[in-house]
Structures are given as C-alpha cells and as structure tokens.
Amino acid sequence: MAKAFFRLQKFLRRTQFLLFFLTAAYLMAGSLLLLQRTRLVLQQGSRGTPANQALPGLEEMSRVGIIDPRTLQSPHPGPRLLVGMGTLREPALDQQHSPHWLMSRNSELRQLRRRWFHRFTSDQEPLQRAGFKAMKHTAEHKGTYMGCFTHDSRERTLKGAVFYDLRKMTVAHCQEACAERAYSYAGLAYGAECYCGNTLPAAAAKPEECNSECKGEKGSVCGGVNRLSVYSVEQLRAGARPRRNVIYRGCFRAPENLTDTFPASLIQPNLTVEMCSEFCSKKEFPLAVIRGQECYCGYPTRHFPLRERTDGLHCSRAHNASSPAGGQYCLVYQTPVQDTRCTDRKFLTTKSKVFVALSSFPGAGNTWARHLIEHATGYYTGSYYFDGALYNKGFKGEKDHWRSRRTICVKTHESGKTEIEMFDSAILLIRNPYKSLMAEFNRKYAGHLGYATDRNWKSKEWPDFVNSYASWWASHVLEWLKYGKRLLVVHYEDLKQSLIPKLKEMVEFLNVTVTEDRLLCVENNRDGNFKRSGAKQKNFEPFTQEMKDLINRYILTVDEALRGRNFSGLPREYVPR
C-alpha cells in the first residue's frame, strides 16, 4: 500500500512540474509573439527602402541629367515611404526621380496597394449585400413566362445579346437588359447567364429541367444546364422605344451594291430613323443604314468598315433625321442590338507554350484591353489576382489559376523582378499618368464604374495617393523595360485613337489569327461593361502645381527610358515641353 502511495505522489509531483513548465512556455511564446507584432507595426510605419537593387539604363539617365551617378554610391539609407502625411514629401533632389529610387520603392508600394485593395473590398462587401437585398425585394417579373427550352451554345436562337452576372442575376435584371436593347424575349441559363432575341427557341424542354436557382434571387428559376427559362418582355419594350438607344455613327459613302452588302432592307415612304432602327432591331442587326427612302440592316464589314466618315453636308443636312439624303452617301445609326459575331469565348484547348502577361499600372485600361483581346481572339484572359466584379460580368478567366496557361494572356500590375521573369513575353500597356491616377482613385473609392466624391478628392487621401502612386507609375514601366524578356509596348491613347491597327498588333503578338470582320465586331462593341458613363466634370482642379511638377518629372524619366530601349516615346500629348 505504501509503495502504491509513493508512486502516486511521485506522479503528481511530475505532473505539477510539467504543468508549470507548459504554463511558462505558453507565456513566453505569447510575449515573443506580441513583441514580434509590435516590431512589424513599427516597421510598416517607417520602413527603409532597399538601396541595393539593380538600375535599368543608369548611364542613359545620367547623360540626360535625371540622375547623378554619385548618388548611387551614397552610404545613406534610401528614402522613407511617407504614407498618411497631409502634404507631399520627397527625398533629396539628387535622388528623388532616379530609376533606382523608383524601382526600390516599388515593392513597398505593391504591399501598400494590396492593403488598400483588401480594405476597399472589405468595406464594399456590406454595401453590396445591402444593395442585393434591396434589389431582391423590389424586383418584379414583367412579361410572360414562355417556358423552358433547350439551349445550344453553338447554335443559339436567342443570339441578339449576351450578358453575365455570376453573382446578382435575376429574372427582372435580364428582362430589363434585353428591353433596353429592344428585344422581345429574355432567356436565362445556368442561373447567371442572360440571352436576348426576337425569336423563340424551337425545341421545348420539360419544365423540371429548368432547375437552376438565380444567383441573385433565391427561389427564382434561371434556366439550367443547357436549358433556357424564356420570358417575353413586350410590356417593357414600350419604354425602350425612345431614340435614346439609337446612336448616330455619321455620314458615309455608300457601297456600290447595298443589297449585296446588307442582308435585310426596307423601302418605306416618309422613312424615319425610328422606323429603320426598329425594323433592323427586330431583324437583330446592329446597324441601320438610310439612303433616301431605303433602309438597310447589317454589320460593319470589310466592304463597309465605317472608318472614313465624310462631311455631313454630303448627306443633305444629316442632322435632320426625318429627311436623309440619297445618292452616293448614306446615314448610319447604331441600333440597340449587340453585334454578337465576336461574343463567343472559351479557354484554350491545349496549354499555351508561351506565358504572356498583360501588364499595366492600375487605372491604365487593363480591363478594357482584356475585353478587346477576348473578343478579338475568342479566348479568355487570366488574372494574377481575383476580382469578383470582373468575374461576375463574364471574365471567366478570373477564377482560373493564373499559371494554368489556359488563357491567352494574364493580367498583372506586378513589377518585381521575380514576378516579371516568370513570363515569357508581355504586352506593356501605358497610359497618361494623370488619367491613370484619377481612374484608379475613382476605382478605389467607388468601384469600377463609379466616381469618387468631391470630399474624397479634397481630403488628405488624394495628395497621399498621388505621392505614392505617381512613382509607382514610373517604376512599373522601368522595371518591365529592364526585366521583360519580350515586350510589345502599347499606349492607351494610341489604342483608343487607332483601335483596329493597334489591336491587330496585339493579336499578332499573341500569335492568333483573326478575321477582319471579327475585328470590326470588336470595334462595334469597343466599350465593354466597365466604361464609366461619361466624364464626371469637377468644378476644381484636382492636381496642384506641386503634383504636376512631380508627375511631369516622372513622365520625362519614362519617356527617356523608352527611347533608350528603341521603343517609341510617350505620346506627345502629355509629355511636358
């Protein structure tokens, strides 16, 4: 008995010692973790910039007086990243605009933007949920449910327009989208895809086969797998009749044989723009062409590309739409109907052997360029990140892993040496920094389609933003010029001005062959889903003279670096003189 008691006492002493040891270890580990976190916060508040990164084109920069090579040998630490200050601050004048400072600062700015981006998305999520609830309670189904039909993606009956919303699609949303473009029917498939047209599908399906719940409306059915839930939108079409959806394209020389060029035509006494546009919309054509009493419907083609607009006087006062001129010239209008010759897209059937980046500074038009590339090539583009708003609007490559090589190219805003060297080649998209900064600031505070408020522009966030992001705009180009293996430099302004020639260059760089008609279709759908509606005019100048001086020096730095690599310099419209 005494022996058993002694063993129990010995075990309890060991257990007590073990518990004491574990408690002490736990407290020590917690203290170390707290100290480490405190140190990390202090480092993020005042982090030094590496001073040992390589420089692109230092000799060239020193020759033009942008950088003094002696500053590179300075033993002093690099400039601090000043974030959260009320005014613009710069490092010493002999270092402030050198490629070395710009590139070394870039890694800090990438981390900064990631934190801002995650904060922005987390802030927007409650707003998006609130908006979704409001939409759910106010949505009303208008029109008549026509039934469940089969849906063949290769031979679609409802082929007038295609919309995606993989998060918020509802029946009402699809109906309204089709009604705005003057279609008679709206069909929903896969719970998130909307198709418009003027002819019902021929093959009906069993009602229970339309069993996919709408992504944005629980309890509502939005088609199914290869199945369409079709609604008529006749009740809505009355609101879509006004001419606000008809866009005047201009006065053009008529082709030699209008009947051969355009597949549908109408001769009508006292023909008006509304009559011709409605006739072509019902025939599902995006162009309405008027010559005298004749109305023709069709697409832009190589025989009628809509590139050389003539003087409106040739069309006998083309602004008077009720009496368009005849003869050798014709008036051309864009109907609400979408040109669908280039809307089909898919992933690459085999993995790409060449890993191509579509690189740009944020706000430089990367999303627009992706829209153009996808519609021109017929293949999805990928992304180094994941943007739910883009995925929900049809950029399906957003969810594909960026290194899958199933996409034609991959969007990236990264500019570190490691990130750049992962790609075999890249399209480097450059935009006027003034426009890029404003576009990114708008996106940061109001999303892809919104505008920052006057309060945002006049707050201390704006000068802080310019101070941090202006240097990133320059360093992004400099690093891709230094580390990029094979580059095609595209200027946003040139792409906007000469869409077809520049898009041809991009498509050829991607080693894809496309038809002229497909490129013309892209031009007809050039804006995409993420174009801000007009330019919101501000009653004040957002850039101070100090900001302009800072940005102009970066522009000169980038312009000189481009020319040093035998690329054309920046567009003269925003290079300081």
UniProtKB/TrEMBL annotation:
In alphabetical order, the GO MF annotations are: sulfotransferase activity
Xref: PROSITE patterns: WSC (PS51212)
Instruction: Report whether ATP-binding shows up as a keyword of the record.
Output: no
UniProt key word Repeat: yes
Q: What is this protein called?
A: WSCD1 protein
| Span of domain WSC | 142-234, 245-342
Its keywords, alphabetically, are: Repeat
Which family does the entry's similarity section mention?
Answer: Belongs to the WSCD family.
